[in-house]
């Protein structure tokens, strides 16, 4: 006997920070900042969205959550005539904290539940990577924790890694948006062999430093030549804020994803590090808010 599929589902998806400096487009970490997506099948034949106050997003089928959901329904041949989406948002838009990845993962997972869970997580992840175009945010958003993404014969794969529980993360979120497309447009099409070797060595060093808890190696391990130097021009005060974080004894300070948010790692005195970064941004006429967060190990969950 087949069980009836649900007509209502609620999915919570974490924010993510991608790259961690050196791991451009391959490393991502889920954070305990969440968006919640509630999808309800309705009798009226249209798809509509109830948006939080002040949020400027599409309120119809062009919404990214709906686009992701449509992909699942089309794949399994089970599309509801009417669908209502309600959003509870804590992940800021266009700040380098994976808001678009959260929307994609939320739409895919919710639609899969409404369809009776015909698709396995691996299939959902492949769809998410295809929609987002790169795996560094969507992978930890769905799977949780720290993930290292790679491809085998054109197929996405990932390795879950342990992130030390004694490390806290400070996110410093500037008060302006930076679209990912704009942040990618400033990157060079070609890099030197020296820069490629530099980032390879730093990524390997970062993995070893985290595993061995050699936090003294993190400032060198999280350095980067592939994206942060070029994106600095789009984030006023970025380099000064990173330097201020290190002076305040942060273990690592990096641009979160495409930016403009910075993420700092620390084992102690997070308030001192947060204040130093905030003051450095303020000196460059950039207002930012800071939050102390922990890594999320659950990933997307159905409530």
Explain the layout of strands and helices.
Blueprint: E1 8-18, E2 27-42, E3 47-50, H1 64-76, E4 82-89, H2 99-114, H3 121-132, H4 138-143, E5 146-152, E6 155-161, E7 168-174, H5 180-185, H6 193-212, H7 218-221, H8 228-231, H9 238-247, E8 252-255, E9 262-266, H10 270-283, E10 288-293, E11 301-302
Parallel strand pairs: 3-4
Antiparallel strand pairs: 1-2, 1-11, 2-4, 2-5, 5-6, 7-9, 7-10, 8-9
How is this structure best summarized?
The protein is an alpha+beta fold. It contains ten helices and eleven strands.
Give a description of the structure.
The chain is α+β, with helices and mostly antiparallel strands and 303 residues long. The protein has 2 domains: 8-162 and 297-302, 2-Layer Sandwich (Ribosomal Protein S5, domain 2), CATH 3.30.230.10; 168-293, GHMP kinase, C-terminal domain (Alpha-Beta Plaits, 2-Layer Sandwich), CATH 3.30.70. It contains 10 helices and 11 strands. The chain has helices at residues 64-76, 99-114, 121-132, 138-143, 180-185, 193-212, 218-221, 228-231, 238-247, 270-283; strands spanning 8-18, 27-42, 47-50, 82-89, 146-152, 155-161, 168-174, 252-255, 262-266, 288-293, 301-302. The strands form 2 sheets. Strands 1, 2, 3, 4, 5, 6 and 11 form a 7-stranded mixed β-sheet that branches. Strand 8 (252-255) and strand 9 (262-266) form a beta hairpin. Helix 2 runs antiparallel to helix 3 and helix 9 packs antiparallel against helix 10. The radius of gyration is 20 Å and the shape is globular.
């Amino acid at each position: 006997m087949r069980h009836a599929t649900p007509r209502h589902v609620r999915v919570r998806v974490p924010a993510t920070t991608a790259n961690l400096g050196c791991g451009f487009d391959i490393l991502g970490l889920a954070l305990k900042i969440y968006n919640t997506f509630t999808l309800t099948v309705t009798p009226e034949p249209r798809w509509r969205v109830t948006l939080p106050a002040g949020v400027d997003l599409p309120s119809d089928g062009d919404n990214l959550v709906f686009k992701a959901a449509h992909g699942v329904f089309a794949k399994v041949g089970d599309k509801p005539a009417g669908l209502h989406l309600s959003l509870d948002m804590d992940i800021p838009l266009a700040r380098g904290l994976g808001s678009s990845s959260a929307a994609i993962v939320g739409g895919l997972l919710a639609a899969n539940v409404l369809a009776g869970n015909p698709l396995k997580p691996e299939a959902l992840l492949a769809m998410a990577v295809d929609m987002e175009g790169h795996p560094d945010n969507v992978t930890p958003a769905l799977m949780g924790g720290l993930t290292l993404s790679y491809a085998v014969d054109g197929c996405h794969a990932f390795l879950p890694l342990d992130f030390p529980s004694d490390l806290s993360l400070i996110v410093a979120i500037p008060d302006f948006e930076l679209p990912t497309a704009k942040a990618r447009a400033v990157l060079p099409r070609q890099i030197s062999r020296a820069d490629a070797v530099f980032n390879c060595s730093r990524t390997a060093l970062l993995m070893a430093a985290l595993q061995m808890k050699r936090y003294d190696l993190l400032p060198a391990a999280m350095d980067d030549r592939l994206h942060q130097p070029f994106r600095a021009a789009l984030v006023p005060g970025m380099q000064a804020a990173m330097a201020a974080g290190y002076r305040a004894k942060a273990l690592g300070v990096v641009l979160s994803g495409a930016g403009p948010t910075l993420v700092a790692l620390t084992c102690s005195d997070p308030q001192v590090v947060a204040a130093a970064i905030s003051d450095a941004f303020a000196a460059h006429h950039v207002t930012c808010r800071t939050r102390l967060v922990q890594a999320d190990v659950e990933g997307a969950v159905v409530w």
